């Protein structure tokens, strides 16, 4: 997965960022489209400007939610109103505005401790898979021996402000950690997460097209491109 992050290549909201400078230089809209590949050899894509490089069946069918920008750090946040697993709501506890940071530098999504424990408990309850010993840093691991496409892996929906659901399917949930063992790809952030309860990491964004429109303060996202028999690692999305 490419290490694309606000600070690394200047995608933040400052006037000195790569995004702002290129938008000013080429008179483009301050908007970026990002597609992270799931395959190590995949190149993915990063596009800056107002015109999406993707075909209508992907880019014209994105769900959206307000984008919240931290004026101090330039970080990007969205409001996750609730989390659902197979339709069951996971309690989030006390919420803060802009409670989920978008951060591709984080390899996996990190949750505040109590939310993480509730999510793992509900996922394990719904998953029809044989649980095995944990493999650090994960706390819910399963046997993948003989696991086929029909395996009962519950989907996780992030219900964002405005009512749209960012659906996370099995490809972005289960991490292969060794032969015949997969783990739920979320991490426990403990109780010390003070500015946000959730950091949405790169693994959960792989093979999803995401767009950040700074001028419209809007964050948009697709469903998994694997459902369309394509991926972010392909040269063209058709």
TrEMBL record:
Sequence intervals crossing the membrane: none
Domain Peptidase A1: 1-222
Gene3D superfamilies per record: Acid Proteases
GO molecular function, one term: aspartic-type endopeptidase activity
Record Pfam families: TAXi_C, TAXi_N
GO biological process, one term: proteolysis
Family: Belongs to the peptidase A1 family.
Protein name: Peptidase A1 domain-containing protein
Species assigned in the record: Brassica campestris
């Amino acid at each position: 997965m490419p290490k694309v992050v606000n600070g690394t290549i200047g995608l933040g909201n400052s006037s000195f960022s790569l995004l702002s400078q290129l938008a000013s230089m080429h008179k483009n809209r301050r908007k970026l489209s990002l597609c992270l590949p799931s395959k190590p050899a995949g190149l993915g894509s990063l596009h800056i400007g107002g015109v999406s490089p993707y075909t209508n069946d992907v880019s014209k069918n994105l769900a959206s939610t307000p984008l919240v920008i931290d004026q101090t750090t330039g970080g990007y946040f969205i409001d996750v109103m609730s989390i659902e697993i197979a339709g069951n709501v996971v309690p989030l506890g006390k919420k803060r505005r802009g409670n989920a940071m978008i951060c591709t530098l984080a390899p996996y999504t990190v949750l505040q401790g109590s939310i993480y424990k509730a999510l793992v408990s509900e996922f394990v309850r719904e998953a029809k898979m044989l649980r095995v010993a944990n493999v650090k840093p994960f706390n819910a691991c399963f046997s993948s021996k003989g696991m086929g496409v029909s395996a009962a892996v519950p989907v996780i929906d992030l219900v964002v402000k405005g009512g749209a659901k960012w659906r996370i399917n099995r490809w972005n949930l289960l991490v292969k950690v060794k032969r015949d063992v997969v783990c739920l790809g979320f991490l426990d952030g403990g109780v010390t997460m003070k500015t946000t309860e959730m950091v949405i990491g790169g693994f959960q964004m792989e093979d999803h097209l995401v767009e950040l429109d700074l001028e419209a303060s809007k964050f948009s996202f697709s469903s998994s491109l694997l459902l369309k028999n394509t991926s972010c690692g392909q040269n063209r999305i058709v």
